[in-house]
Amino acid sequence: MSEFQKLYQKHEKRLEDTQLFQKAYKSALYHERWKKRNLNVKELKGYKGLKTIPFTSANDLRIAWENHSVEDLILTETVGFWYTTSGSMGNKKWIPWTYNDYQLAGVAIAHTFMKTLSPTDRILTIVLPPPFISGSSPFKLLENTGKLGTPIEVLAFSPEYVQDGFGLLMKRSPTVIVGTPSITLRMADEVAINTPKILKARADMEKSMKLRVAAFATKLKKIYPKNIFKDMKYGYFGGESLDPYRKAIEDKWGLEAFDVYAFTEGFSGGYECKEHNGMHFPSHHAIVEIIPDKELEKEESDPDYLAGTVLASEAEKGLTGELVVTDFKEAMPMVRYRVRDAVKVIGNDECACGEDSVRLKIIGRTDSVINLGIIRLSAIIFDQLLRKEFKNGKVNLWEVFVSRDKYKPKITLTIEPEFTNNEEEFKKELFESLHEFDLFQRGYDNGLFVFDEIKIVSELKHEVYGQGKSRLVRYHPNFFEEVKM
């Protein structure tokens, strides 16, 4: 029996020792839905009991927050920190973490980084500010690498302040970068554009001939981060799939890139090791299940069907399905939470790096989400925005096609209208409706994706899949392949 399998044996006992099911049942997030399944919660034990509990979704979280007080939802009297999700469904979901929750997550992050880093490293981390979960990661890194006896210097910036801190970064020369792949590539372009200006300004200020020569040289040859941050070794990237961006990032930054997996709602992050063969999910404080594809198909044909799952400790190489997580958080544990990421089991034996845990690869999504990298837009919200009342037309059918413009996702929206009075004005109204949605607006205004065009057609034929469902979102065949720069 492997150490990972032994860990899952301990987790089964931990379910009973912590009375996780019985405690969670007190939360309004779970109470009514479990009651409808006629579960005898007092009798639920171990993995056998776990597999009788209905899954929890992001929509369940959203509805719970709309209909219940905080006191009805949380299981502790106090909360250490509140995090929020991006709001792809229109309303943000707030996730409470106790101090202990925060500490456990931080220690796990520190252990992961210390597998490759040393106290002499300097981390440039590009994070969204609180209340997004990434906003606390610089402090977790510093606190918990310090607790391990090897504190690592952190240079933390939100995306809009990187340019302001560029002078410090040039002088301090980070060796590691942590961020999202698309923003990191965008930074590379910004470096290429702004380096000549920055060098010239510094040359004028410091009256340095050497800097004047360097500023002139950058006009003749395009400068990328690897030409400036010559000590850069590693990059850790999350928030979206690294694979399409990996080679471009490594080429422009001169580093070795690693994939990282995390989500706001709970524990059980994943990380890629030096073998670059899937992400390890060590599951120190969480239980990972996978719903196999065949079970997802049964569920699709029967909404009342409770899909079967495979524990990560028992999953065989090659298995594909949907990721489900149960964690041991105190304030509001996630019990059988569907992250909606489709995964493939790469391996379930000891890796050459020495880590003994399941290795997974994220291969897509299982929900109706328009995937624009770090920006994900719910197709349900898109539908609502496109079906508002407009002066110059009305939408009958719509489809989104997602391709790429270099490394940026690009949207083409096709509309079959019921009627139009003025096509151009109707297109403007449609775009304005989408732009009013906060997440779309932030992504579009900050250049995180390209909105290509709106096409008006007389007849739109949807691709049909599954039980006669229409596919509203299609992707270019090369969208998930390597980005060509």
Task: Describe this structure as you would to a colleague.
The chain folds into 3 domains: 3-93 and 264-367, Rossmann fold (3-Layer(aba) Sandwich), CATH 3.40.50.12780; 102-258, Rossmann fold (3-Layer(aba) Sandwich); 370-475, 2-Layer Sandwich (GMP Synthetase, Chain A, domain 3), CATH 3.30.300.30. Helix 10 (181-206) packs across helix 11 and helix 10 (181-206) packs parallel to helix 13. The model is unreliable at 213-217 (pLDDT under 50). It is α/β, with parallel strands linked by helices and 485 residues long. The chain contains 17 helices and 22 strands. It has a 12-stranded mixed sheet with strand order 4-3-5-6-7-8-9-14-13-12-10-11, with helices on both faces. The protein starts with a helix and ends in a 10-residue tail after the last strand. The protein has helices at residues 3-17, 20-24, 31-36, 46-50, 58-67, 70-73, 99-113, 137-147, 166-172, 181-206, 209-220, 225-228, 246-253, 293-301, 379-386, 423-435, 438-445; strands at residues 81-84, 94-97, 122-126, 153-157, 176-179, 234-237, 256-263, 266-272, 279-280, 286-292, 310-311, 320-327, 337-347, 359-365, 369-372, 375-378, 393-405, 408-420, 450-456, 463-465, 469-471, 473-475.
Primary descriptors:
Rossmann fold, twelve-stranded mixed beta sheet, GMP Synthetase, Chain A, domain 3, 485 residues, alpha/beta, 26% strand, 34% helix
